[in-house]
Amino acid sequence: MRRMPDSLFSRLLLALLGVIGLTIVIAGTLIVQERRELAFWAGEASSFVAVIAETSASLAEMPPADRDAAVEALREEPPSIEVEFQRRPEQSPDRVRTVLAAYRRALERRLGPDYDVAVALADREAIDVGIPVVRERSGPRGADRFERGGPDRFERRGRRQPRQVDVRIGLPDGSDLDFRAPLPRPGQAPPGSIFPQLAVLTLALGVVLFFMTRTITRPLSRLADAAETVGRGGRAAPLPEVGAREVREATRAFNAMQERLHRYLDSRTSVLAAMSHDLRTPLTRIRLRVESLADESVRERFIADLDEMNRMISGALSLFRGLNDDEAEISCDIAELLDELRGEFAEMGVTVEIEGGALRPIRIKPLAIKRCLTNLLSNAAKFADKPRIVIDDGPELVIRVCDDGPGIPDVDLERVFEPFYRVESSRNVETGGTGLGLSIARDIAQAHGGSLVLRNRSPHGLEAILTLPRAAEA
Amino acid sequence: MDREPNILVVDDDREIRTMLSEYLEKNGLNATAVGDADSTRRALREADYDLIVLDLMLPHESGLEICRDLRARSDIPIIMLTALGDEVDRIVGLEVGADDYMAKPFNPRELLGRIRAVLRRTTRERSAPASEAVREYRFGDWTLDLKARDLKSADNETVELTGAEFRLMEFLLERAPQVVTRRDLMRELRGREHDPFDRSIDVQVSRLRQKLKRRDDDPQLIKTVYGEGYVVGVPVTAG
Questions:
Q1: What is the dotted CATH code of the domain comprising B6-128?
Q2: From A374, which residue of chain B is nearest by alpha-carbon distance?
Q3: Among B109, B197, B227, whose Cβ lies nearest the Cβ of A346?
């Protein structure tokens, strides 16, 4: 099944070409056979069949005693068939067999079921072609070289292929009549030009089918590309509604979906921007008012609450913004980006080890990916002294951020991606952050068409596996 | 400075601008509060100000437009206040020439610290250059003119720098060939301690790099020293 072409276009084209090709081959074969048959019976063979059948029928009606005399009379007046004993081309065994069978079938049709017909290639050539020889049956049928009903036999004796056919007719009363007839010349071969003509026809059909199929499938692949773009958080230009009705309907539905989706996202973004501004204005007022509080400890507590509220607003905003930010994808050297990160963490006193490297640049939104990796590294840095980054490049770029901390319970591996979810043990502000870092990181991974999962390492530690596909850049 | 510095506070929220001016007054500064672009321009015509605290979101005309407009004709230090709080939005403020920015809700003491840092720097700049010998730095194909406060290429093309970019370039050149840490840069340019997640210095460095890189094969003049900071990677001559 591997060999099966993958795209709808190539499958459709292949299926259509296959069916049409098969039809042409079958039609061609039938035409060739028909022509051969026609040629065969238009020639001397049909005359001999007629003579043999008529002679057998008239002899069968005579009393057996008169037959010899009748045969003698026939010898005096040979049937008026001209046989050209020019050299005939040797014919292939298959062909000879076909000819013998055709002979037999024609005679059986003429004579009816009362007669028994057998045909064989002559073992030697004689000149008295078409003259019957009456003979009494000498043994049980089937013991001679003739065969009845079954495949017609011939044997090659000597070096040359005999050019005559022995026909034995079993009369209804049990006696046999032997005839000798020329091996009919093969039917004229179909003109050789038919094959190139068929080839040209097939080629022309192929070209027509190629463009037809492409017209059908192209809107589909455009639709798939656009869906992919939208899925990654991008914005695709409305697709032209072309092609078959079903495709047009799908395109229209897609355009409408995209339009509604973006309207929804846009309105959500503007609501959030407004909300953030509107929330921060009263927060700023409170913050300024707090400065005039005389009691230092009350002031400190107010400030801490305000800071936490602000952190949550910022976190929620960056989570939502991650879905439709405007950063452009550029080709980026991941090693450079990681080096930068390493430098930044070094300033905070965190040593980050980097293993492996990318084979070539990858198309990403650098700021978003950096935010994603920063979130992952900050998590790792909280639980281990030396977080480690391992890069594997291949069909996809896999970046693993590992630590040797305690890890997290397996049940939480997926839940930590939920906004504001925190593993129970980290539910305090000092280590917990806003509880949005991983949600944001995963959003960024998914916006790149990739994925982000967490896995516990053995014997202990946690690794975050960020997978970024390279497929789209080929 | 022999008189108390005059600060213009621009914010559309009356309570914020009032409380902020009161806070600044209480801490030894003269503060005037206005609420929109028109009154800002009027105030600037009527009196001399040493610094503007400018809210990004204003009715009719945004803080960004005011800032861009002011920068076209004056070097007055500007600190942006933004409620958007997104890195990108804050960086926009720096791009139109603000000297620093603060995200709302801000710590008033920190704002005060930054105001003082910016004032200190501008005062020193106004008094210092005339007396010192250095009038320009030459590095690579470039000349940084300290008097005209601009950057010229070898073919005498002038590249516009914002106030903050100019100070960053000057500081890097002054210290070359030493590596300047982000901490030094924060302290010198922003008057505050370094926060590793504050990318504003890196944003300004990369904008400066873009301006210094006119062709793809131009060498990177400002080099990153990982884990340390930035350094000018070519010989620098002061003249």
A1: 3.40.50.2300
A2: B197
A3: B227
- Least confidently predicted of A146-155, A158-167, A179-188, A401-410: A146-155
Q: Domain range for residue A68?
A: 44-182
Option in A281, A313, A343 nearest B226 (CB): A343
> Would the CB atoms of B108 and A288 count as touching at under 8 Å?
yes
**ipTM of the complex as predicted:** 0.72
Which of A137, A162, A182 is a domain's end point? A182
Query: Which residue in the set A280, A318, A348 is minimally distant from B83, CB to CB?
Result: A280
CATH number, domain B132-238, options 3.60.110.10, 1.10.10.10, 2.40.160.20, 3.40.50.300: 1.10.10.10
pLDDT tens per residue across span A255-276? 898 888 888 877 877 777 677 7
Low-confidence winner among A85-99, B18-32, B75-89 (lowest mean pLDDT): A85-99
**pLDDT (tens digit per residue) in A36-60:** 777 666 666 777 777 778 878 887 7
Asked if residue A423 lies in contact with residue A443, where contact means CB atoms within 8 angstroms, the answer is: no
With a CB cutoff of 8 Å and minimum separation 6, the contacts of A279 are A313
Rounded CA-CA distance A161/A96 in Å is 10
Which of B24, B107, B199 to mutate to test binding with chain A, by most A CBs within 10 Å of its CB? B107
pLDDT, one tens digit per residue, over B33-76 is 998 888 988 998 888 898 999 988 787 778 888 888 887 777 78
Is the bond preceding A63 in cis, omega lying within 30 degrees of 0? no
The DSSP annotation for A292-311 comes to T-S-HHHHHHHHHHHHHHHH
pLDDT at position B32 is: 92
Residue B132 backbone dihedrals phi, psi, to 5 degrees: -80, 160
Question: How far is residue A288's CA from residue A306's CA, in Å, rounded to a whole number?
Answer: 11
